[in-house]
Each structure stands twice: as structure tokens, then as C-alpha cells.
Amino acid sequence: MITPYVPLIVSTLLLSVTANYLRFKGSEKFNKAVLVITSLLVVELEGLFFEFTSTDWTMLVFIGITTICFDMIGALISTSVAGCIMMLQTGESVLFVWLTYLIFATGVYLLHRYMKFKQQESDAWLSKLSTNSKLLNVYKEVSFSIQQSVQLQKLLQTILTAVTAGHGLGFNRAMILLVDEKGTHLNGVMGVGPMTAEEGFAVWKGIAKKKFKLVDLIQIAEKEITSDVLLNDRVKMLEIALDEPSFLSKVLETGSPLHLSNWDNSDQTLLHFVSEFNMSELAVFPLISQEAKVGVLIIDNPVNKKPITANDMDNVIPIAKQTAVAIQHRHFYMKIEDMAIKDGLTGLLNHRAFQTNLVQYIPYSREKTLSLILLDIDSFKHFNDTNGHLMGNEVLIQLAKIIQCLIQEPYQAFRFGGEEFVILLPQTSKEHAVRVAEQLRSNIERATFPCGEKQPLGRVTVSFGVASTEDMPSSGEFDLVDRADQALYKAKHAGKNRVVG
Predict the structure, then answer these.
(1) What is the pTM of this model?
(2) Mapping DSSP to helix (H, G, I), strand (E, B) and coil, where does residue 240 land?
(3) Topology (CATH) of 351-500
(4) pLDDT averaged over the chain?
(5) Would you state the pLDDT for residue 214?
(6) Which residues are listed as membrane-spanning (predicted)?
(7) 393 Cβ partners below 8 Å, 6+ apart?
(8) Cβ atoms 330, 228 nearer than 8 A
(9) 3-state DSSP assignment of residue 335
(10) Considering only CA atoms, which of 465, 470, 450, 452 is closest in space to residue 499?
């Protein structure tokens, strides 16, 4: 004899397979309805096979499932349906049973709401933790990369990449403008991002395909300084006067970020930005370090048009502060480095810089000629004794300016010491170096120096010694200087104010 359990199990399996098939055919509400109907059929099948001996209890399964699926509406409908079914099956009043069902449904509803609330609360905390973890990782990567960046361009590229990368803060576009040395203008320096939505989607597709992370994008950005050429060309053309009222000068004056989605038609600078970069919304962050105005960071979303929220603004502020400090430190570093390699009086590179550069050039001089010009002011001791050292300093300053006017890259001019100067001419033959020296000698001779008429030759003059590695291919750097010094000695003894090579 087949027990009732076998047909019940078979029927339940068939219903489950059918329900599982149907759930792929509709929406979420349709799937819930399939589940509710299936549970009711299972309860009725159980009653059918067991002569409805425990249907009043198994009906609680149907009520619980319906309440979970459709909340209070499900509770009311399921208790009503269950009450009607029980009344039809027993033919008696089921008020007590219906009240029991209603209390049970209410309990399930409240328990489900509580569990749902706790789940949402847990998800919210998990989302916050995930977001904060991502932000901490961004700040860590940015901080590490900033410490490794020596060049300003690489530093800015790192910052902008962190702001725009999907694994970073995720903005579509960012640009940096820096205050000039005089503090009167903001100059566009660099931008990262697309000029059009099509360009942006193409970039995103490439990043997604290669599965780049933030650290990968930063490393790529450090190597490819010239990325986003079209945007950078336009950014570098920007020059904003800070003495004129604009949204940029306002941000630097107040020291507070600014979020703009409605345009002030009286702000011509803002209207120019909106037109030039196709902006519909933007945010500006001041770059200020120790009350020093460094520049501004501008962000927007021209591709996905995602609104910039207050939370987004808060996320950018720490990076903006890091950026300001890093740029300011970089400026200090450059000034200190400049002081270390430049002569304080003349502004020319000093003897230390000369030694460093000469050592770097000599290894290549066997293949490419390196020439050197050594020059010395004639009778400079007589000038100082006659006119004083302060006037002598004026002569040195004026002479340095004449040298700077003629000597341009790749040539380099240095103050060698005292009244001596030296010029390095890479990839230059001795013959051409002599012509350069003669041109410089002529320019100095024609110049008017203070108290020059008191000199033995009636004016301030300079003698030159020229040497080249083409005459001494296997020699070292000090041999080249010594050869130029010997030539200078000959120029002095030949009557001064001349070039000897």
C-alpha cells in the first residue's frame, strides 16, 4: 500500500519544478505570486492526502510566505483566504482560527519588518565601510605617489588621475590651475579627462577591458605625461586675472569649495569655462597651504552627467589639501635647489652646478664634441681697488646679463668664481665655440659699464680661452678646464681683450 507521503512528495516536487520554471518568465512580483500560489497548493495537497487533519496548522506556512512577500497587504489577504478555506472545509465558524491567523500574520509582518530594517542598517554600514575603505586606499595611493614624485608634472598627473579614475574618486574630468609667481593670475597647467562623452566612453571601455586598478593608472599616468592632449591644450591656454571678480577668485578668497549648477551671467570667466568645456555642473576646490594661495582644482562629470553631491565634495577636500601642501613643498624644494646651484649675485649657475654638468657631459664627449669657454674680466683687481667692491659687483651683474642674452640652450653659462665665468657648449666644434666667444667679447666691448673709463684699456674688457674635446678625445673633465685655462693665460699675455683657442 502506498502511503500518502509518496504522492505528496511527488506532487510537491512537480509543483516546485513548475514554479522554478515560471519564475524566470516574469517580474519580481510575478515570482512572489508564483511562490504564494505554490505554497497554498502544497498546503491543500497535504490536506487532501491526509484528510485535512492538520490543514489549520499548515495554513500558517501559506500565511507566513504571503506576509513576507507582500507585507501587510499579503497578511490581510492570506488570513482572509485561509479563513474562507477553513470555513468551506469544516462548514463551521472559524472566528477563533481566523483571529489566530491574524495574530500570527501580524507577528510575522513585524518580525519581517524588523529583520528587514536590521538588514538595511547592516547594508548601510557595510556600504559606508566599503566606501571609506576605498577612500582610504585612494588617499594612501595618492600619498605614496606624491612622496615618490619629484617633478611637478608627475605630481599633478598623480592627483588628477586619483580624482578621475574609477578606482579613485570616479569623476569624469578634473583640471588644475596654479597661481603664478607674482600671485596675480591663475594659469592652466594640466587636465585629465575627455572633451566629449564619446571620448570618455572609449577610454572607460579600454580601462574596463584591461582591468586597471588605481595604482596601475597612476603608474601609467606618471609615464605618459602628455595624455588627454586636446583637453590639456585648452587648459594651458587659460590665464585668469585674480584681481577681477570671478568664481575662481571667490574660491581662493573664501578658502571654501564651490558647487555650481546654475550660472551667474555676470561672471564672464564662469561662462567661458561652461562654453569652452561643455559643462553642465562643476565643483571648484581651493588649493591653499599655510594661507598661501597655490591654485584651484576643478571637477565635473561631462560623460555620465552624474550629479555632484555634498558627499562627493567632502571626499575631494582631503585630496585638495594634500595637493596644495605637496605643490607648496615642491615650490620650496625648487627654490632651495635653485639656491644650491645658482650664484646669488649674478643669477648664473654656480661652480657646483658646473662640476655636476661637466661630469655628465664628458662620458658622451668621445662621440659628440664638447667645447668650453673660460672668460675672465681684465684688470678686475684694479677696478675693485679704484672703484670699490660694490661697483665691482655691479659690473659682474651687468656682465652676467650680457652672457645670458647670448648664451641660450643647449649652451649653459656658469660663474666659475670671482671674476671668472665658464660656458659649456655641447655638440659644438671648437671653431664654432671660438666664434661664440668672439661674439660675446664684442658685445662686452661695446657695452657701457659704470666707471669703465678708469680701466687700463679705457673700458671694461674680457679675455677668453677656448678648449674642445675634439683636440683631446681621451682626456677627462679637468683636462678640458686646464686646456681652456692655458688658452685664457695666453690671451692675457697677448694683450687681453681677445679670444685664444
Answers:
(1) 0.60
(2) strand
(3) Alpha-Beta Plaits (3.30.70)
(4) 84
(5) 45
(6) 6-22, 34-53, 59-88, 95-112
(7) 345
(8) no
(9) helix
(10) 465
Higher pLDDT, 230 or 422: 422
Q: What does the alpha-carbon distance between residue 313 and residue 452 come to, in Å, rounded to a whole number? A: 64
pLDDT of residue 363: 64
Sign of the CA dihedral 193, 195, 196, 198?
Answer: negative
Q: Mapping DSSP to helix (H, G, I), strand (E, B) and coil, where does residue 20 land?
A: helix
Architecture per CATH, domain 149-330, reads as 2-Layer Sandwich (3.30)
Q: Which amino acid is at 300?
A: D
Q: What is the mean pLDDT of residues 70-82?
A: 88
- Pull the grid cell for residue 372: 668650453
pLDDT in tens, 269-311: 999 999 899 898 999 999 998 889 999 999 999 888 899 999 8
The 10s digit of each residue's pLDDT in 335-348 is: 888 888 899 899 99
Angle at 195 between CA 192 and CA 200, to 5 degrees: 75
Q: Is the dihedral of CA 11, 16, 21, 26 positive or negative?
A: positive
* Residue 217 clears pLDDT 50, i.e. is over it: no
Long-range residue pairs from 257-266, CB within 8 A, at least 24 positions apart, any chain: 257/283, 257/284, 257/285, 257/286, 257/313, 257/316, 257/317, 257/320, 258/283, 258/284, 259/283, 259/308, 259/313, 260/284
Strand partners, 420: 376, 417
Q: What percent of the chain has pLDDT over 90?
A: 40
Q: How far is residue 90's CA from residue 75's CA, in Å, rounded to a whole number?
A: 22
H helix intervals, 189-309: 197-210, 214-223, 229-235, 247-254, 268-277
Nearest-5° Cα angle at 262, 258 to 266: 90
Task: Determine the residue type at 418.
Answer: G
CA distance 24 to 173: 41
Residue with cell 673660460: 374
Which of 34-43, 136-145, 163-172, 400-409 is the least confident region? 136-145
Distance CA 199, CA 191 (A): 15
Question: What are residue 377's DSSP bridge partners?
Answer: 462
Which residues make Cβ contacts (< 8 Å) with residue 138, sequence separation at least 6?
162, 167, 168, 169, 214, 319
C-alpha cell at 445: 666691448
Return the amino acid letter for 295. Answer: G
